[in-house]
Every structure is written in structure tokens, then in C-alpha cells.
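Supplementary Methods S3. Input chains for the assembly prediction are listed below.
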Amino acid sequence: MSDLTALTAKQAVDAAATGDLDPRELFQAYRAKAAADPLNAYTWVADETPEYDSAQGALPLGGVPLAVKDLFCTEGVPSQSGSRILEGYLPPYTASVVAQLHAAGAPLLAKTNQDEFAMGSSNENSGFGPALNPWDTTRVPGGSSGGSAAAVAAGSAPWALGTDTGGSVRQPAALTGIVGLKPTYGSVSRYGMIAFASSLDQAGPLTRDVTDAALLYSYMTGRDPMDSTSLQHPEAIALPTGDRLDGITLGVPEELTGEGIEPGVYAQFEASLKLAESLGAKIERVALPHNSYGISAYYVIAPAEASSNLARFDGVRYGQRVEADDLVSMYTRTRHDGFGDEVKRRIMLGTYALSSGYYDAYYGKAQRVRTKIADDYRNAFASVDLIVTPTAPSVAWELGAKSDDPLSMYLEDLFTVPISLAGLPAISIPNGLSEGLPTGLQIAGPAFSENRVLSAAYALEQAIGFDATPGRI
Amino acid sequence: MIDREQVLHVARLSRLELSDDEVGRMATELSSVLGHIEKIGELDLDGVAPTSHVVEVENALRPDVATPCLPREVALAQAPAVQDDGFLVPSPQAGGES
Amino acid sequence: MSETTQYETVIGLEIHVQLKTVTKMFCGCGLSFGEPPNTRTCPVCLGLPGALPVANAEAVHYGLMIGMALGSKLADRSIFHRKNYYYPDLPKGYQISQFDEPLCLGGQLGDVRIHRVHLEEDAAKLVHVGASGRLHASDASIVDFNRGGTPLAEIVTEPDLRDATAAAEWLRMLRTTLRALGVSDVNMEEGSLRCDANISIRPVGQAEFGTKTELKNMNSFRFIERGIRAEVARQTAIVQGGGRVEQETLHFDPRTEQITSLRSKEEAHDYRYFPEPDLTPVGITTEMLDRARAALPELPLARAERLEREHGLSEESAHLLAFRSELGDYFEAAYAGNGGVEPQPLANWIANELVARIGADVDPKDSKVAPGALAKLVSMVGAKEVTGAGARQVLDKLVADGGDPAAIVEAEGLGAVGGADSLGPIVEAALAANPDVAEKLRGGDMKPVGVIVGYVMKETKGRADGKEVTRLVREQLGL
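Predicted C-alpha cells for the full assembly:
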């Protein structure tokens, strides 16, 4: 019997629909691979195949199982957001998007490893050990959705859900040679996603190709009455077709010069631009003058919101508690022992930025920078259809290489962060290798332009023909 | 630019216990990050409205209709300490916030 | 400051009103009325990871009604903020409240200006249980989240009040207004109306305010009055002694009349307010305004004007009946039940005699005196079927046992002894029995007429009408 796990999700869906594939067998095949877990990609794997009836194969997502980032609440299944403070936490409810996908035919395969509370770009901040990059297990898979990316790249899951706040779906996708989509803010419900930064967090698919990403995303959207910030997507999401970019203008930020980017990564980016031109696209420079302030603004806003979102982890109602004689000590010791260093750093940063006397200089200012960045993109999209950049400035680095310098880690998010601040959709697709490690191309569009983004990504994906694999496990 | 005093103050606001060592390290690391963040101080942003909601939506309100509550056992199921059907905690000091 | 300096008290009030919606402010849990602990919760009001708030449209509606009733300016666009602090009754580690873009700004009720009205969620309940074997700590509490998330309207006044009695009176006026709106039970004992007072003193004539303290946890009108008075005395003593008032949060113990410190404001939390990213702004639409306006009942000021106009009541009476709506309701029921009764005497009997007998905080409709019965009694007084003194006795009986005033008059023999036929001979006898008094009266000195009246009263067991007696005396003496 051929390896069922070699099929893309869409191929498996089609096969299930015609009865050529038994979803139960597919689930078992993936379950076995996930359980082996040499990459520490998982925090929990289903130990049973869900009961299937024959109708499961006829559902839109064909019974093709889904790996889900640890921070999505899944009823009765550990949901820890990669943190010891929530070790073993079993929520009494399931996140809206996970429930929605399950109802559409994508049952829960496993929970994946992540940077603690989604704070990180390497998955080294996990309370449960780093996840490893299948391309080179001495290297990071990126983060914070490192486990989801590693799982899909290694072929132990057909597709996965991650979350992206400043790049946490796109960047690990780039570092592991797969596709990652961050949708327009508000297009996917956040109800049940353990929060990091409320105004930035969005769930997104991590998949083997653009078609799978479009398919999964199309069943993720929808206004959820449980999430005040969620909206109905104005368009139906289509599976992309077409292999040309005629009539499309791609914008490249003026400020992008190659400086601060690894040469190999930059070379692949330039090659992608040439390829795009050969497909009929026009390339234009656009000014995004406030993008260089993106990291600064992001590292005020995200930690500020996080410092508030994480205040609920106090040992009172759930999670770990360190007993003490008095209440304040209970709080401070619980949080000291339960949170890792990066989380503590960001809580401190965020609290400082909101504190009396500093609000205007930090949080107030950062929110205004955010407005300028969003304005810049609006202006740019008046003259171009999409904006392209490398997804990340480097390929996967060695475990521990950036641990001593938080700032250098933050700068990995250079190209992804401004798009998050503006709430816009963006996809990362693999566009080549540099020294044997994957590089990614980021394609961003105006709000709710996912169809346009997916189409361009699909056309480029066909032309790039990235077929290197890290070797299936 | 952020000294030990300030670190201790912010740690108290955040309800984080920090060892002496950690306070020192935190001061260094935060100063480094803040140094980068200070960049936004260069910009003249007078008259620019802050973005507190990146999506332009108003009035996501819900009708005043009751929905099912959690059974008490479920609400208490993950609690570290329970007594008399409630969440047991050390008492706060005299009447104020903790 | 010398002991001879006169000080003026300055009071502002901060009132929290639990709104009478069906569900909580940010989730669909039904409001709790004494249910067993932790049976009215959900992921949202428990602050579980991943849960998100969604604002209750009806709470916004009630907030608008309150703003309209108080004459506030209603925001075009209002947003929620997070108020961050740590306490076991605050599951998220922040309270969703409003900061610089509240629902309502300004307004006035009576003589007191309103600063603002905003919406927020209530905290849970913390119950002290003392020692618990299950914890290291020597002192434990348990948290019940049933109440957590209940919608609150916070009403803050300007510091326009100048004494404790006025503060309590104004609070009663506010309570009546809110009750009339139907937005809350406004019951202080049950906690649906809570009031804190900000109190300072300053030398009379000084424009600058003195340092203010915040007095919390007073759960009745009387305690508020006494608490404010005690705090004013405390501050005055400090200042007269050459000291300075510290800004702090205080607690008043009504049993001991002691004021104790809850915490100093310097230790007060830095709430780190920022706009709530999980909620959208509330844009007040014309539809919302129309619906709120249509839902407003006759408000007390309007009612007072109407009572003056329709019934010719004095301004004072009309105001009292309008702002003590239980009395106003009772008045209107009584008047409707008895077409012949004079409104002003009826109002007086309700405000003075009835209230004195049943107590100032009792709703007359809960007493045994049916509105129609009181109206009948007042009519009988007007028709001189019973004297004022006799009627008071009847009222005592009505308050104790209910019933019909005419029957009671009959049964107790309290009917007024009226006309010249019955009284005449008794007046004659009185004059005959007191010849020197009669002499003086004949001479034009009316001072001792009380002796004659007293004699007649004794003879009639108080059932004579004093004025009628005096008239007969004059008639018989040819004056």
C-alpha cells in the first residue's frame, strides 16, 4: 500500500470523497508518525482513532486529521500554550475555529509544541523543550508555531493550525520550507485561542502547499458571535488556479536593500522577483517609510497586551499554584516558577510601557506608529496589488545561537511584524534553499484580499517548483 | 535606562517574584530592548490618531438572552484548591487590592 | 488653623448600580440571586484562558436611559478600557470598565451635578473563612464567581454636597429616579446599590479643595449619613490640631462609629488603563437613542411639576411625593380611590402622620393602611365627622390592624361631637363651672378660652372640635 501520508491534504480529501481512501486508515497512519515524534513537535497526540462513519469522507475536509497548536483550547485535551504554568490544563470547551474545522471533517490529530504563550521566533521558549527543524535537527524550526511547522514539514501531520501575532505562522513556514498563511485580522475567530496579543493574534494554516492552505482557510473564516472582533469575510475563499501573473503589480519596499538579510536569502528573493516578471508581473518599488519602526512599535504593543492577558495566570482557578502563607507571595511565586524567561521579560516590558508616566511615551506612541504603518500600506496598495519581501532575514539558525540576545531574536520578525500591525493578510511560500536550508517569500495584500494573495502564491509556487524535502520521517 | 529600582517596581506591578540575579539580568535585557524601542521617540506623531482597534467595526453587541452555564464541578475541576464549593485562596491583607 | 476657623464640608459620591438585565455584562450567564456558589459561571466570567467578552446590548440601553434621566451628554462613540490589578475576585486580573470615553458625561439631579456615568463589570464575591487545613496560609478565603460579571453603572457626582444629611437625601433622590427607570432593584441591603463618599473639608471661603478621603462600604442611608459625619469630625479634629489629612481609603464601622484605614492612596494601584482590544467601540445610533427615550417613564422632576399643577399641591409636598416615589404612588392611588378627598391634606397626612407611624424606609403600600382607607379618613376629617385627634387614633388602629376608618370610628366611638345641639349644652355647663373665666372672656380677653375648651374636651372624651367650641363660646357670650 502506498504511503498515505505522502498525499497532500487536498489529494486525501479528493480520495476520501470518491471512497478510494479510508479516513480511518489515514488517521492511523498519521497518528503513528506523530506518536514517534523525534522532533519534539507535539505536546499531545490522540491515542485513539476517532469513530468514523461513512459520511466522514464526504465532508468537505474529508476526515483529514489536523494538528493544532497547543494554545487552542480543546475540550478535555491538554491546552497549555507551551507553558508550565498551564501544564496539564484541560479546558471545558473547544476553540471556535477548531470546532468549526472538526465539523467540516478535520478531526484533532495532536497538539503541537510552541514558544511559551506564543512569544518567540524559534520554539526555544517552550516549557516543554524546543521543537527541532526536520531539515537539520541541530537547528530551530522557527516560532512561535514551531511544532506545527516541523510536523507538517516532516510529514507527520497533513496540515496544522498555528497562530501568527508578529510572524509566528509565516516565519516557521519559511524556516521549514512549507506554506503558512496569516489571514486578515478578524477573519478568523479568536474564541478559545489562549491569548498573547489580542489586537494582533490570528489563527492561520500551515500546509504543504498553497492549495491546502486555501482549502483549510476557506473553512476557518466566519463571524463568531463569541468574538466581538471577528467579521464575516466579504468573499468566498476559492482554491487558486492559474499559473500566470499578468496584470499583477508586485510592490517591493524601497527600504529593502539586502542590508540585514543573509545573502543566500536575498539571492532567492531576487530570483523570485525575476521569476514573477517572467510570469507577467510588474515589479515596482513602494515607500513604506514607517516599517523600520515596526519592531519598536510591536515590542511595545504586543507585550503590553500580553502583560494584561497573562494576569489571569495567578494560581487561583486553574493551572499551577505555588502555595504560600499570604496571597501576594502565592501570586509572585506561582508566576515566577510557572513562566519562562522570555514571558517574564515581555510581561515586564509590557507593564512598564503601560505604567503611570510611561503610557504616552510608549504605548500611546506605539499605537500612533501603528496608524502610520497602516496608512503606508493603504497608500502603497493604491499603486500595487501585492507587496513582496523575504519572509525572514535568515535561514534556520542553530539551537541556542540567539538565546543570549533577545533583541537579535526580535529582529527576525522585521518583515512580518509591520503586516501584523496593519492587520493585513500575508502568506509565506518556500522559494528555494540557501546552504541547504529553506528560504521563504512573503506575499502580502490589502485587507480581505486572501483570494488575490493565494492566486499569486499559487502561480509562483508552480513556477518555483520547490520539491526539496527534509526527508520524511 | 531602566535601573534595579524600576525593575523591582515593575515586578511588583506584574506580581512577579525575581531573584537578585534575575533583577540584574532583567535590567540589562530590558534596557537593551528599550534602547531599540526608543526609536519611536524620533517620530513626530502629533495629530495622529492611535489605533486601538485595527478593524473598523463598531457595536458588536449581544442580545440579553441567557445561555447555559458551566456545571459547578466543571467550573471547579481545574482549581488548585477548593472548599465549600468555592476557590480557596489565602486571604488578602486588610480590605485592599492585592 | 485656629480652633475658631469655620470649616466647610465638601462631599462627592461614587455610586455603583447593579443593572437588572437578564444576563451578565460580557457573557450570557443569567444574573445570580443567591444561587449555590459557582453555579452561574462560564469560561468568560471565570476568566478561563482563551475566553472573550461580548458586551450586553441591554446594559448599554439601560446606561443610556440613566444618562438621559440625569440630563447627561451621551457619547457619540464610547469605548471600554481595561483596569488592571490583582485580586482573587477579579478573574482576568483586570476589570473591563470605561476610562476617558465613557457612555455619559455631565448632567444634574436636583442640586448636584453629575460628573460621569459609565458601564463596567462587577467583581466576584470573596468570603473569609478563617483557618483552613487545606492551605499553608493561616487565613483563607473562598471565591464565588456567581456575581462576577454582573453589569454595573457607575455614577460619579461633582463634589457639590455640603453635609451628610444632604448627601443621604440626594442619594434617596437618585435611588427613586433609578427605581422609576426600572434599570435596577437599587436595594442597598442586597448590594444592588452601593455608595462610596469622597470627603474633604476646607476653611469657609477658601476656593481650593482640601485633601479628600474615600469612605467605602456603607450599606444603608443611615450609615452613609453617620459615616460622613464621623469622617468630617475626624478630619476637623486633625486639622484643628495642626495636622494634615492624608489621602486614603477608609472604612466606617457603624457599630463602633470608628473610621479605619483600608489602604493609603499612595499604595493605590497603577491601573495601567488601555483600550480593551477584545471589544469594539460602541457607536450610539439614533435607534438606540430613540429606544432609550421611549423607555423613560415619568421622571421625578416631571412628576413633581405635574402634582403641583394637577392637584395644586405645594412645591414642597409635590417634590416630596415625586422623589419618594412610594409615597407618590400611594398618594395617587389614594386620590384615585376617593374622588372627594382634598389633595393637600391627603398629602400632609401621608407625609407626616402615616410615615411617622410606619417608618421612613417602609413602603406605605406594604403597610396595612389601604390607600382608599387613608383617603376616606382624610375626607372624614374634612367633613368634620372626626376631629384631628380622633383621626390620629383611627390611623393608629389602621396601621396596626388595617380595616375601614368609618367602622373604626363607629366601633371606638370616636365620632366628632359637632353641632350646636350636642355641644351647646356642654359649653354652657363649662362656662357655668368656670365663672371667673367666663367673666374674663366677656371682658374681651380670649386668653383663658383654653380652659373652656379643655373642659368640653374632657366631657366629650376629645371628640369635640376645638374650633367649633370656641365659636360656641363666643356665640353664647355674645362676642
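Residues 7-294 of chain C form one domain. Chain C has a mean pLDDT of 91.
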